[in-house]
Amino acid sequence: MRRALFALGMVLVCGGAGLAQSANRPQATNPYLAVDSTRTYYLDDLERCPGILDLQSGDLWMLSFPEPVSDYFLTRQGIVEAKVTGQRVMLAGVGTSGSVPLMVLTDSGLAAQFNVQVKPGTGGQNKTVQILPGAGPKPGCPKAGGVDTAAPVATSAAPNAPAPVRQMPSSAPIAPTVASAAPVPAGPAIPVLPGAVYGSRFKSPTLPQGVIGTALPSGKSIQATLSVVNATTIRFEFRNGLGSPVIFNMADLNYAGQPAADTSGTFTLKPGQTAIKTVAFKSNVQNRLLGVTWAGRVTATGEFLTLRGRTPQ
């Protein structure tokens, strides 16, 4: 009898230990799932800092955007092939090696930039690139030459001086033509933000087609109404309601994937000013319902802003 009870006790002890070890044992992974290869970017960051996509020949990548994609642009063929489907861009490495810039336009007018690099290798891998809305927790591009061009640079001689705006040295500033329309109330000037970074406060409001703009949380905004003059010319009517001058560079205009025919020169919009700017392009821009972006800088703070919207009907 005692032997029987002893044997039963040993069975219970060993069984309990086995159950405890089973509970603590890590769960086996699914052998039919590969390693998670998702990469994350933020859409506002990609408007200024191109994302690096390092494919191997034969890879298939999926770029997943937070909103529908309207179009994409590659400067040459034979390195990668792309296809848009809804909010995704499928990217296939078809060349053996090389690099090519890629620009993806969304329905709201945002333009995401990428540098696509294809290198020789085993290839045949699937990867997902998740693009999230807004800016990342640490916005700003990597520094080039030791100076961060995304924020005002302080010096000992002028501690509060804003960062210089890129200009072509051989070009004089272009003075906009002042229209007869009533000026927009300017209100108080934008306060200076030391060390302001790209996209820190400016957001893209919901605008009708044919209007580009950006706004502060307070509601103050700067906008431009677009109208077609002819097949290769667009008229921009600006209204600056920010209460501070804003400088624009002709080289920073992107109209449906095209730069202006003349990318030299700058012009400044004063607070409360309504001004007309007529811009010519090399190719036909009529009936191209795509995104428009024009980057500028607030002279009082050094902050970058981007007017965004859609081409007119």
Automatic annotation (TrEMBL):
Keywords: Signal. Residues 1-22 form the signal peptide. It comes from the Bacteria. This is Uncharacterized protein. It comes from Deinococcus petrolearius.
